[in-house]
Amino acid sequence: MRRVGQSPSAPVSRVIRTGTKGSAGRLAFGPVDDRVYVGYAGKDAVADRGWLLGHFKDAGDPRHSEAVEIKWSVHPRADARAEWVRGEERTALLVLISGRFRVELPGRSVLLEEQGDYVVWGRGVDHSWFAEEESVVLTVRWPSVPGYAVAAEGGAGPRA
To answer: Whose CA is closest to 97, among 139, 137, 42?
Structure first.
C-alpha cells in the first residue's frame, strides 16, 4: 500500500495482527526506528493506564511529548473517576469512539452518545466522568504536565 506522494521504494510498516478483526489476537508492533513507533492502542494503553503519548514516556521514545498527551480508554459500564480534577492547567478534548459517556463539568453534565461526539474544556475547568455504558474514549490534552494521577490503592499510579 502506497500513499499519494510516497516514493515507490519507501518501506511500508504494517501492524502485525493474528486472529480475526476484534479478537484479542492482535500484536502491538514497537519501535520501527528511533523516530517511528507503530502500535495498537488497545494493547499499548495497558502499560500506562491508557496513556499512549505524553511527558511520562521515556525521552528517547517517539511517544514522549511535553506538548500533548493522548489517552485511549476502555471503560466498563458504571466506571467513574475516583475524584474530580481540580485546578486544571490543561486544555482537553474527549472524543467518544463507542458507548455512552458522561463528562461532568461545573454546573453542567455533557452526555456523549454517538460515535464522534466530543467535548472540549480549557484551563481552569474542573471535571469528572462516568461511563453510562461500556465506552471507548480518546482524550487529547495539552500541554503535557505532571500531576493529576489519582492515587491507586497502595500508592499513586502513573496517570489518571
So the answer is: 137
CB count within 10 Å of CB 98 equals 13
Map residue 140 onto helix, strand or coil.
Answer: strand
Q: What is the pLDDT of residues 49-66, one digit of tens each?
A: 899 999 989 999 999 999
Confidence of residue 11 (pLDDT cuts 50, 70, 90): low
Residues 111-137 pLDDT 10s = 999 999 999 999 999 999 999 999 999
Instruction: Report DSSP letters for 119-139, one per residue.
Output: EEE-TT--BEEEESSSEEEEE
Q: Where are the domains of the chain?
A: 48-153
- Decide yes or no: CATH 2.60.120.10 for domain 48-153: yes
Grid look-up 511527558 returns 55
Count CB atoms within 10 A of the CB of residue 141: 20
Query: Who's near 108: CB < 8 A, 6+ residues apart?
Result: none
Q: Which three cell numbers stand for residue 85?
A: 480534577
Q: Is the peptide bond before 143 cis (omega within 30 degrees of 0)?
A: yes
